[in-house]
Amino acid sequence: MRILFIHSDFIEYRVKEKAVEAAEKFTKEWERVEDCLVSFISVERKDDENVARKAIDEIVDVAEKVNAKRLVIYPYAHLSSDLSDPETAKKILTLIELGLKDKYDVHRAPFGWYKSFTISCKGHPLSELSKQIGGEEEPEALKKETTIKTYWKILYEGNLFDIDNFDFTGYEKLRDFVSYEISGTRAVVDVPPHVKYMRSLEIADYEEGSDSGNLRYYPRGKLIKSLAENLVTNYVIDYGAMEVETPIMYDYEHPALKSYLQRFPARQYTVLSGEDRYFLRFSACFGQFLIAKDALITYKNLPLRLYELTRYSFRREKHGELVGLRRLRAFTMPDMHTFVPDIEKAKEEFLRQFKLSISVLKDFGLDLNDYEVAVRFTSDFYRENENFIKDLGSFVKKPILVQFWEEKFFYFVLKFEFNFVDNTKKAAALSTVQIDVDNAKRFNITYINENGNREYPLILHCSPSGAIERVIYAMLEKAEFMKKEGKKPVFPFWISPIQVRIIPVSEKHLEKAIEIGKNFEKEGIRVDVDDREITMQKKVREAEMEWIPYIVVIGDKEISQKILNVRDRYLDKTREIPLIDFIDELREKIRGKPVKRLNEDYLLSKRVKFV
RNA sequence: GCCACCGUAGCUCAGUAGGUAGAGCGGCUGAUUCGUAAUCAGCAGGUCGGGGGUUCGAAACCCUCCGGUGGCUCCA
């Protein structure tokens, strides 16, 4: 259904001739209504009573906003090219009329007639609005989200505070996050700064040749992304998960998948294979659940953990929501599922994964001050596990946002997220863990218990870092915060695409510079040499603009004294250190971290400029 | 999905009573061989996002599509 609202000084219409066979009988050939809200409505194919109900809510909502007492329902076919049959349209229009009659003075223009009309629009900002309601692919969960009963509190030092009574002094980012969550931000903002960096640092870029929200990654971005992926995967495997790989597209008609789709508030990409319709996965859940369903699992195998790094997960986010790396339609998500026998075990895993997520983010240079914690649960879960929730709050030693759901509508009873609040005061979720009480049954995943009987496990969904692209986004936004504080923006050493740049003072030092560079390369440190014929000032400047952590200048002095002159970005100063000691220092910094080779030429004169 | 703004050289942008394009950076060439955030000079480089229309004439005005951004809505 589509509705066009016009808040009018008056509308006047006159019935002319029949437009369709099924035209409605009418009582007034001419009508004029003063000071009213006119709703021009197209009833579309697939619209039903639910859509009518939703339409009533929308009309009431708008009427309240513009303070209208009189309503005009005006059938108007021209808003849509996918109309319902006339009988349905009449029925739904009548339902809407009846639904509004109690509270408003409702007038309705007859259906199925050509009418002349004159309307006077008030012209204030809310006087013209249009809405689209329903749509066949809209999952229940998306619609339900707007009606589900929920309330919010701040949890701090074991106490729950009303949002309005909590003093956010010193917790401004939490305040921004809360207002973003509950009311949506009102701040006037520009493009988030990470978009500028993702391009200028040659990490990622928009790709016109694809759908919006599908980005291209340049060599440096690909390197950063791979390192990030490897780090998370290593963590998860150390944690005890087994890595699997599953298809990226699934059958719309598969019964378990079909009902799961309805519980998941996201839109899908659809793929046609001949006549058959498939959707692109929006997480690794399906693939892993379908594996678990067929596996022979006993209580001795629990907790069982499956993991996949999805490249990609797809969500067809609305156009207006896509920005840079914050929100994409194709993204890389580490996704682990843990199967446990009961709620006690689930809580134990939940807490461990909570801590795992903190460790993972820390390696990306994001600590608890950089993100806000949200914990959400059903009221039932809270009643039975109040202390558990409070312990989570105590563990992070700062106030957190908690959300209560009166009923369980989604598939989980408890979840947390770590939300990054960026320079435009918008929030994006990074790590998350959920306790899923529904899907074992839905997918018929069972394990054999001590007595030889089949039982449904509980399932934890965990993305310890959140989407990899989002982690990069958070690192870039954090860099901007650093810049605002007067610090130099920089990546953690292990993930810097170039870790050491060697700058020969003049051409005659080049050979020696390359030789010194080899010592770093042997240790798995990504080093390059600026062999271009430009001034060294300029080389230093460009190295700084690329956020390279260590800039080593090689001239006569360094060659004769065998001491390196290092410009250290983390300390923001230049220091002198013997080569051996410096390499030891860097080796220590990358210990236990993923290592990858430089993903571009060692010599800057050979480099391509991508942006 | 709706509304608004934007799209000009590889990048950032200038170019409004409509008269077939400019700067800086980058690139190339030459000079300079240089000590920690921009050496100097010359040269090359443009279907003005795509398509359609108005006009003698469109980067400019209109329509439409695509892309980007912001707002609304929404965001497990």
The portion of residues forming beta strands comes to 25-35%
Main β-sheet, spatial strand arrangement:
8-7-18-17-19-20-23-16-15-11
The name CATH uses for the topology of the largest domain is BirA Bifunctional Protein, domain 2
The biggest beta sheet reads: 10 strands, mixed
The CATH class of the largest domain is identified as: Alpha Beta
Structural domain count: 3
What is the number of beta strands?
28
CATH superfamily of the largest domain: Bira Bifunctional Protein, Domain 2
CATH architecture of the largest domain: 2-Layer Sandwich
Q: Tell me, rounded to a whole number, the average pLDDT.
A: 88
Number of H- or I-type helical stretches: 17
C-alpha Rg (nearest Å): 30 Å
Structural class: alpha+beta
How would the global form be characterised? globular
- Report, as a whole number of angstroms, the end-to-end distance: 44 Å
> Which blocks of ≥5 consecutive residues have pLDDT under 50?
none
The percent of residues in helical segments reads 25-40%
